[in-house]
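Hi C.,

You asked whether I'd gotten around to modeling the 518-residue construct. I have! Everything is below, sequence then structure, no commentary in between.
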Amino acid sequence: MAAQGSLRFFGNGSGAPDLDRVKIPVDDPATNLPGPAADIGAADLTIECWVRGDLTSNAAGPITCGNNVDWINGNILIDRDRFNQDRKFGLSFGAGSPVFGVSGQGTGDRTICGSTLVLDGQWHHLAVARRRSDGFLWLWVDGILEASVDGPDGDISYPDNGIPGPYCGGPCTNSDPYLVLGAEKHDAGPAYPSFTGWMDELRLSAVLRYPNGDFVPPSAPFTPDAATAALYHFDEGTGTTAFDAASAPGGPGHGILRVGGSPVGPAWSIETPFPGMLDVRAWLAGPFDALAGRMRDDLRAQALVPTAETCTASGFAPVGHPGGEMCAPPVLSVTGEHAVVDWVHVALIDPITTATVATRNGLLLRSGRLVAPDGTGALHFGVSGSFRVRIRHRNHLDVTTAGAVPLGAVPVLVDLRDPSTAVTGAAARQVIGGQALLWPGDASGDRSLRYTGPSNDRDLMLLRVGGAIPTATASGYWPEDVNMDGVVKYTGSGNDRDALLQAIGGAVPTATRSAQGP
């Protein structure tokens, strides 16, 4: 998985047929089964994304808006056309301003135009919507409503038994049953130019997202909800698949990158509209397998990792957001390198006042990468500046970077697995085989490891297994399970008490170890 990023198109268009675009299937012409979740239009819809481009590379002139299909003459960003047939829509740019067009099933055509120059080299949020009951259309730029009008009524989804017309040197089966990004889907000629620029965070919804007019554009990557038909973060960074992060029935509808042309596109990019992106890497010593060079995912494999974040309940108060992050169940079904180990908490610390400026909760993967709750991309904090970075876990000692990390629109890597990454204090991490790890054993959550004496962590382990029979065990998602194998053990092979004793030194039971940092 890559850090937060975007997808860049180069506008090759018909000069590179069926290339420099993303193709998302919306129907199987061989059957009359319902289309995939990305086949929106049978109900209300909202389409939104972030875009960045310039006029020099997108030369389409002004579009005549009205009862027509002239949106097709702009630099095309989204094309869900059907060649010479009804039930279609698309989004393009004319003279750098957004244009949205819809054709109903025998109910006419309508193109509406925004007024803001969007292709000015900066990121802008675009949103368009349509109400199924009467065909009413809306278009927003950066949350400001710029156009709205009554449009064609009826169902504009791709027909489940749709038959592509014979207009593409044969049936248009290679273009009609797709939603295409970045190009005119049929390669009908240079009169229908493609889009050149960046696209990020495309969300297709089966509801009217913004029914009350103007709105504040999102300041972070989208998270899927029940109304999300498809969601593309474009964070993959490699490969030829744009993964659908939604969990809609009939999904996922992964996009297919058709790479080619000159320049070769589409290309993955680290550009993003969001400030404050962190790509954090860390090892937890409890589940770390030194021979495998990665962490175990025993908790996930036993279905013990909750879908709701556990950091707030562990005492890590949210700052700058409400907390309560959720992950979709499919995220916890991923196996291998990208399997989830547990929830972790990350905080940005003011380097002067040591106050916590912002926090986020994310998922730590076996590879040591920390991702957003949807299982992809870096954590987004929505702030710019330089901050110290702290990572916390419910039964490991937290670690804080010694220096301030500058955050901006490009994701910043903070690799706490690397012993050379400077952190606050001496021996603040355990080092095994050249890898730095967070110390395990903080069953009490008080930022210290104690084997004996008041408030020690060992007694909590004994209490968890019953308090009277040391050989008893307790299965579950417990803070006393410091090796994170899904079972609290006080004695025997793989017990948690020994992990605590080793973390404080292994020889002097009265020794202690504390987290270091503000």
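If it helps when you're writing up: DSSP finds three helices and 33 strands in the chain.

Thanks,
B.
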